[in-house]
Specification:
Blueprint: H1 2-18, E1 25-30, E2 33-36, H2 37-53, E3 58-61, E4 65-66, E5 73-81, H3 83-87, E6 94-101, E7 104-112, E8 117-122, E9 126-129, E10 132-134, E11 146-149, H4 155-171, E12 174-176, H5 181-189, E13 195-198, H6 203-215, E14 219-221, E15 235-238, H7 243-250
Parallel strand pairs: 3-5, 11-12, 11-13
Antiparallel strand pairs: 1-2, 3-4, 5-6, 6-7, 7-8, 8-9, 9-10, 13-15, 14-15
Length: 253
């Protein structure tokens, strides 16, 4: 399973890279949500491989939806996370997918081809960046931390994100929106940044990253502090040491 998911993610990422700087925007789904030719190419590669290898598994993809199978296994697919970045020539994008069993992530992978970075986690076996085991940061003070945020496409979630950014920018060492949840969660997992919050988090955006951060020793909850699950609407994740401070930041947002 490990080699299958790594090989499929890398294969798809390298195909996407061929279209970097060349892929046309096909449609605008909603505010900050676009689709390029490369998204559809990547989706076809991944879905075809999953259907062939695991014909009975459920599959949920951002681009092609859900296959409605009845199974305890669910594949969550984001053919290109950070499509807007991809479309404007920013290298901050990734192909990512995760396998859930009984609503819990058990293996996940993301590949950022323009950065040549592979993120991988397996339940109980740790988190790896380019095959090197990594851990979350040891930062214990939010005022000395690097904070990142993202948001769903709904207007209410964008407005909530702006309120969060306003609070965080004044309190943290610095705050950023990278525009790709795969990398924002991956950065927390490998200790580059210290926390990430996402109001209106889509499962395909953050499914893999939940396992990244958990396996790297961090904490992942909703905005109320309850452990994140498939029904959670929002995501708050951190190195664990500043999590109570992150939850204060999003309180009543």
């Amino acid at each position: 399973m490990k080699q299958f998911i790594i090989n499929l993610t890398k294969k798809t990422g390298l195909e996407v890279l061929k279209h970097f700087h060349h892929s046309k925007v096909i449609k605008i789904k909603s505010k900050s949500q676009i689709v390029t030719q490369a998204d559809l190419i990547a989706d076809k590669i991944i879905i075809s491989a999953l259907r062939k290898k695991f014909p009975d598994h459920r599959i949920l993809s951002e681009e092609s939806g859900e296959n409605q199978k009845k199974s305890d296994y669910l594949w969550v697919v984001d053919p290109i996370d950070g499509t807007t970045n991809f479309s404007i020539g920013s290298p901050l994008f990734a192909v990512q997918l995760a396998l859930f069993h009984k609503n819990q992530p058990i293996i996940s992978c993301a590949f950022a081809p323009a950065l040549n970075e592979l993120y991988f986690a397996q339940k109980g076996k740790g988190f790896y960046l380019n095959h090197k085991k990594m851990r979350v940061s040891q930062t214990a003070d939010f005022e000395k931390s690097f904070f990142t945020f993202c948001h769903g496409s709904k207007s209410k979630d964008i407005k909530r994100a702006l309120k969060i950014f306003n609070r965080a920018k004044l309190k943290s060492l610095d705050s950023r929106q990278l525009g790709a949840a795969a990398l924002e969660t991956g950065f927390v997992a490998c200790g580059r940044t210290d926390s990430i919050v996402i109001p209106g988090a889509n499962i395909w955006d953050i499914g893999p990253g939940v396992l990244f951060i958990r396996e790297a020793g961090g904490k992942v909850t909703d905005f109320s502090g309850k452990d994140w699950n498939l029904k959670s609407y929002d995501l708050a994740a951190s190195n664990g040491k500043i999590h109570h401070q992150v939850l204060k930041l999003v309180k009543n947002i």
